[in-house]
Amino acid sequence: MRVVIQRVSQASVTVEQKIIGSIGKGLLVLAGFEDSDSGEDIEWISKKIIRLRIFNDDEGLMNISVQDIDGDILLVSQFTLHASTKKGNRPSYIRAAKPDIAIPLYEKFKKQIEKDFGKPVQSGIFGAMMEVSLINDGPVTILDVPQ
After folding, report:
1. Using 50, 70 and 90 to split pLDDT, how confident is the model at 147?
2. What pTM value is reported for the model?
3. How confident is the model at residue 144 (pLDDT cuts 50, 70, 90)?
4. Per residue in 34-46, pLDDT tens?
5. d(CA 117, CA 70)
6. What per-residue string of b and e applies to 5-25 under the rule 16 or more CB within 10 Å gives b?
7. Which of 21, 24, 78, 117 lies at a 20 to 30 A Cα distance from 92?
8. Could you confirm whether 85 is annotated as catalytic?
9. How many domains does the structure of the chain reveal?
10. CA 54, 1, 47, 129 torsion: positive or negative?
């Protein structure tokens, strides 16, 4: 499992010219899954995302979480996070889980974040061609992989 966490002042995801998910201040989370990902990985990374202190406090220090600011989360599946470019110029996605494994992991991940966060999470549509728009605040972008 790989996630890219971006601190945003706003973000949205559009499918077939219709906005299906939109947030103001909060986190845009891009997630890619592997066959070996487990429920334990999902629980760990969900808690990490919710508790990650990457928002500025009153002194301008990154010291508060998305929960502390009462922000929002937009979750988008992105298998290309597992791209390997070691050979040739065409990326290989052999480590990315196939949809029959990745879809249940994505759905479990969304439910876990909602449980840990205590409120609904906006999301894209797994496997759809999506247009993601964001204003990266900072910019702050973090790559995280469960231990």
Report:
1. low
2. 0.94
3. confident
4. 999 999 999 999 9
5. 10
6. bbbbebbbbbeeeeeebebeb
7. 21
8. no
9. 1
10. positive
